[in-house]
């Protein structure tokens, strides 16, 4: 679906009142959720006294309580009560071969058995993993491995400042670049500024320039106005739009950013934590044919195994990571580039290429998007729709992610719309679909016709609970 159509459809959804599931239909759903997930509830009741909030991850269904998972295989996951789900969370994007892919897991088990977890020194797998990344990504000549996407984003900012000698970093509103002090600014929703900044001193944002997505004039102004005030060192970009495409960008947006970076001698940093090796083996940079100066990579490079992150890019830029004391920038991590993560990276990328994981996951996502949009077309009173960037799918039901903050009742709108989306998700989850945040689905190369038909059945069921408007 093209940008203009997505925007128009979103606007229509926001113009309509939300369509909640009536209480008499919702109550039995809540009851079923509780009855089906007794063991999950027990775990949650104990965990919330030991772990703040009772859960570390807030990616999927947490209301009325989060579900504890037992295992995954292929496109399926099972919870501790034995319920089966078609998984569209895929661990928040890194799983594209499918869960428990034995050809991959065997390699990791071999490393653990024969080499142990880590020595704190380098291993040959580090070189092999770097070679694989460089082979696929047009903008990458050198790679520095780290332990998470958050760390890699932090490193990219530091590298950009050290290389350019400039201070300011542009962050596009609504995008997510991890939870470091400087990056928790206008996250999730454009224009929210320091709304989620509890615990972060204001000074941390002194050199962050917040730009609203698709505001071409604002973007240009940000480069121009800051030129005499330290200058723009770099701009962090999720090329498919903030929150992995939840805030889609105009087709000319990334092109304009690249041009301004060249004009003002600032670095273009693509955050490819989700898009790298998922949208394309060459990432968003290959997909859009725009070469960034720096690339941030995360979870998918180890396909779900821990210690996963890297900052990569042009050789001259990356060279600020080397040199003698006082000359090089300081970044590190004891377990960064440990042999297990590096073997996982090398083998995961090899297997994704061998099986054309991106192509297959994309093919399924295209078919599912079409089938869901056909189903939603039978309920024009709702206006639900789906769009996808390859195997990164978004479904829009209440549009809570797109409420403009300029509207007078923005907060009420967001809360009401999110609550209804949560109720929808409670139904789809307890009927066997595991999705992300009630708005997103990631596909893997193993999703098949059976998964597609079951997915449609669950959505049909949800639609049947919402009265015709
Ligand atoms: C685009 C993007 N950047 C950075 C991160 C942070 O990565 P991590 O959770 O590994 O710290 C994420 C996490 O989802 C992400 O989606």
How would you portray this structure in words?
The protein has 469 residues and is of the alpha/beta class. It has two domains: 3-82 and 356-465, Aspartate Aminotransferase, domain 1 (Alpha-Beta Complex), CATH 3.90.1150; 102-354, Type I PLP-dependent aspartate aminotransferase-like (Major domain) (Aspartate Aminotransferase, domain 2). The chain has 15 helices and 14 strands. The strands form three sheets. The protein has a seven-stranded mixed sheet with strand order 4-10-9-8-7-5-6, with helices on both faces. β1 and β2 (76-79) form a beta hairpin. α4 (102-115) packs antiparallel against α12 (339-355), α7 (216-225) runs parallel beside α9 (253-264) and α13 runs parallel beside α15. The longest helix is centred in the last third of the chain and has 21 residues, at 357-377. It binds pyridoxal-5'-phosphate (PLP). The site of pyridoxal-5'-phosphate has 16 residues, from α6.
Supply database-style keywords.
Aspartate Aminotransferase, domain 1; seven-stranded mixed beta sheet; 2 domains; 469 residues; alpha/beta; Aspartate Aminotransferase, domain 2; 13% strand; globular; 15 helices
């Amino acid at each position: 679906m093209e940008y203009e159509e997505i925007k128009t459809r979103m606007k229509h959804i926001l113009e309509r009142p939300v369509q909640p599931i009536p209480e008499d239909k919702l109550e039995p759903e809540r009851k079923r959720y509780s009855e089906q997930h007794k063991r999950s509830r027990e775990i949650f009741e104990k965990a919330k006294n030991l772990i703040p909030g009772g859960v570390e991850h807030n990616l999927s269904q947490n209301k009325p309580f989060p579900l504890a998972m037992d295992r995954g295989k292929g496109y399926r996951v099972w919870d501790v009560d034995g319920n089966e789900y078609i998984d569209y969370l895929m661990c928040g994007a890194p799983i594209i071969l499918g869960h428990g892919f034995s050809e991959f897991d065997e390699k990791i088990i071999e490393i653990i058995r024969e080499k142990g977890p880590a020595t704190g020194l380098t291993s040959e797998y580090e070189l092999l993993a770097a070679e694989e990344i460089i082979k696929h990504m047009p903008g990458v000549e050198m790679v520095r491995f780290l332990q998470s996407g958050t760390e890699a984003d932090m490193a990219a900012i530091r590298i950009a400042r050290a290389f350019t000698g400039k201070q300011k970093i542009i962050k596009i509103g609504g995008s997510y670049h991890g939870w470091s002090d400087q990056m928790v600014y206008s996250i999730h929703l454009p224009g929210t500024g320091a709304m989620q900044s509890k615990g972060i001193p204001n000074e941390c944002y002194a050199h962050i320039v917040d730009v609203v997505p698709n505001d071409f004039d604002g973007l240009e102004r940000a480069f121009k106005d800051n030129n005499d005030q330290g200058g723009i060192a770099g701009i962090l970009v999720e090329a498919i739009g903030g929150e992995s495409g939840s805030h889609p960008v105009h087709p000319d947006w990334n092109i304009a950013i690249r041009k301004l970076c060249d004009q003002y001698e600032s670095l273009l940093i693509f955050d490819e934590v989700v898009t790298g090796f998922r949208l394309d083996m060459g990432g968003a940079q290959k997909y859009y044919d725009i070469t960034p100066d720096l690339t941030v990579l995360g979870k998918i490079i180890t396909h779900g195994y821990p210690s996963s992150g890297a900052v990569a890019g042009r050789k001259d830029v990356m060279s600020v990571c080397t040199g003698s004391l006082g000359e090089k920038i300081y970044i590190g991590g004891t377990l960064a580039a440990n042999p297990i993560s590096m073997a996982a990276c090398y083998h995961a990328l090899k297997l994704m290429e061998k099986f054309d994981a991106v192509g297959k996951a994309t093919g399924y996502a295209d078919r599912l998007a079409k089938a869901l949009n056909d189903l939603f077309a039978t309920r024009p009173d709702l206006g639900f729709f789906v769009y996808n960037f390859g195997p990164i799918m978004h479904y829009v039901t209440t549009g809570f992610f797109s409420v403009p903050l300029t509207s007078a009742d923005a907060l009420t709108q967001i809360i009401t719309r999110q609550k209804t989306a949560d109720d929808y998700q409670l139904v789809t989850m307890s009927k066997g679909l595991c999705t992300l945040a009630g708005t997103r689905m990631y596909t893997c190369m193993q999703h098949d016709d059976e998964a597609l038909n079951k997915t449609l059945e669950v959505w049909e069921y949800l639609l049947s609970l919402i009265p015709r408007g």
